[in-house]
């Protein structure tokens, strides 16, 4: 039963925070289906640039943010971040021009940086390898649930257009921002710090949902599986972070997989409702129909992670997911000239559902194969940076001169998925080769075999 409570207070709160983060980051895709662009005197290309600024801020401050998290602890830093970007998201309500749009986008990126990577590291501290992929994927599903729910929320909020003198898009930013601030308060009362100190930030003993015996179990089951695993976050200096970036090629490979595989996601999240609207639906139906794509993605991602945890296979599952995504992208590209809007919508749902299904598996793959907790902190931050750089590049997939069919955009997505297959195969082969080297060595030599400066006693997960 303690595992259920752990999922509730730890994973549940981290999901709420990531849900709010994605809600505040992606509700712009619903806003641009209204008069938002005209009201603040901008263009779609300015919206692209603003979102690129947000993602650039996340990339720049990702590793520094995780260094602060390791220094002061997850509850305090994640709560501060959530409260800060919630305030910024709320004040988006009062944007009037391009400058205020750029300013709020940058501040959102600044305060959102480090949240996801920090959450992934915390999950790695509390859960065993057989539990990580599913939990990390469940965390990532908050992303897709936020995008899908954002469309539904937007469809309802848009009926408030003109109430209290506010536009429909202003109500959208206001309500989403207030929700984020409330989530930050939830962190204060429930988010545990480490397996050995599960009391929340408020420090009230009655809010601790675990007994001393359960805390010992939570800590020891992780250590018994792998004695190199840490249950406390170590501090990281800038010099150490730079050293890990220079010496550990594995974290770069996983970051590259995240980057290339998530370029399509960047464009599809921003322009998904617009693409559906261009099929012949009004803005209300477009936002509602867009939510279906994300809920389908949640189902596929959770299923893939469950299979990955049961089989302890990471690379092969990532490969299969990418092949499916490539097939769906090919069908989408082939039907560009089709005139049946419902047929095109059905294919688009499959296309969107096949996008980014193994994001959590990639993070769990790294967690299982990097023993040094400091290197893992840097590695998870680099993966998130890669994902956000992918989203940054993806903003340019769907251009005004390619509208409304976006044939060039869909063709580019097919090429990106093909590149992802190559990287996944490379990573799988590297881990397989490392395992082969371990098998060839004697038991004593295997215990002393070095991987990235650490002793390796267990096989790598492929």
From TrEMBL:
Signal sequence residues: 1-20
InterPro entries on file: MFS, MFS_dom, MFS_trans_sf
Membrane-traversing stretches: 106-126, 138-158, 170-191, 249-272, 284-305, 317-336, 342-365, 377-398, 410-432
Main location: membrane
Any one cellular-component term (Gene Ontology): membrane
Protein localization: Membrane
Gene Ontology molecular function, alphabetical: transmembrane transporter activity
Domain of life: Eukaryota
Keywords for the protein's UniProt record, in alphabetical order: Glycoprotein, Membrane, Signal, Transmembrane, Transmembrane helix, Transport
PROSITE patterns: MFS
Membrane topology listed for this record: Multi-pass membrane protein
Record's protein name: Nicotinamide mononucleotide permease
Organism per entry: Fusarium albosuccineum
């Amino acid at each position: 039963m303690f595992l259920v409570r752990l999922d509730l207070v730890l994973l549940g709160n981290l999901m709420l925070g990531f849900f709010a983060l994605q809600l505040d980051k992606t509700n712009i895709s619903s806003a641009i289906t209204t008069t938002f662009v005209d009201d603040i005197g901008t263009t779609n290309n300015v919206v692209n640039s603003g979102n690129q600024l947000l993602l650039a801020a996340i990339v720049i401050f990702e590793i520094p943010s995780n260094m602060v998290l390791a220094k002061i602890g997850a509850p305090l830093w994640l709560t501060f971040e959530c409260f800060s970007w919630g305030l910024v998201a709320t004040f988006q309500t009062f944007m009037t021009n391009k400058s205020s749009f750029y300013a709020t986008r940058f501040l959102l990126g600044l305060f959102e940086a480090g949240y996801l990577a920090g959450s992934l590291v915390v999950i790695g501290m509390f859960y065993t390898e057989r539990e990580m992929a599913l939990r990390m994927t469940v965390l990532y599903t908050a992303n897709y649930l936020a995008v899908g729910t954002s469309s539904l929320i937007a469809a309802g909020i848009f009926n408030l257009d003109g109430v209290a003198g506010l536009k429909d898009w202003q109500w959208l930013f206001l309500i989403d921002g207030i929700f984020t601030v409330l989530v930050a308060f939830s962190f204060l009362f429930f988010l545990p710090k480490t397996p050995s100190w599960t009391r929340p930030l408020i420090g009230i003993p009655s809010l601790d949902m675990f007994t001393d015996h359960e805390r010992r179990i939570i800590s020891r089951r992780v250590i018994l599986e792998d004695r190199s695993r840490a249950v406390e976050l170590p501090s990281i200096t800038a010099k150490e972070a730079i050293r890990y970036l220079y010496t550990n090629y594995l974290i770069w490979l996983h970051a590259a997989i995240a980057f290339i595989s998530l370029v399509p996601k960047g464009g599809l999240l921003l322009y998904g409702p617009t693409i559906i609207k261009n099929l012949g639906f009004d803005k209300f139906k477009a936002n509602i129909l867009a939510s279906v794509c994300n809920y389908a993605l949640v189902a596929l991602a959770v299923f893939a992670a469950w299979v990955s945890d049961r089989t302890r296979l990471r690379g092969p599952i990532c490969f299969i997911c990418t092949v499916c995504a490539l097939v769906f992208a090919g069908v989408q590209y082939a039907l560009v000239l089709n005139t049946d809007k419902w047929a095109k919508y059905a294919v688009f749902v499959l296309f969107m559902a096949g996008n980014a299904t193994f994001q959590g598996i990639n993070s769990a793959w790294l967690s299982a194969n990097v023993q040094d907790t400091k290197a893992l902190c840097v590695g998870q931050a680099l993966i998130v940076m890669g994902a956000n750089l992918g989203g940054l590049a993806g903003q340019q997939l769907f251009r005004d001169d390619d509208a409304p069919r976006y044939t060039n955009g869909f063709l580019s997505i097919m090429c990106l998925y093909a590149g992802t297959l190559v990287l996944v195969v490379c990573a799988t082969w590297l881990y397989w080769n490392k395992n082969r080297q371990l098998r060839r060595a004697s038991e004593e030599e295997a215990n002393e075999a070095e991987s990235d400066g650490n002793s390796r006693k267990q096989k790598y997960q492929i």
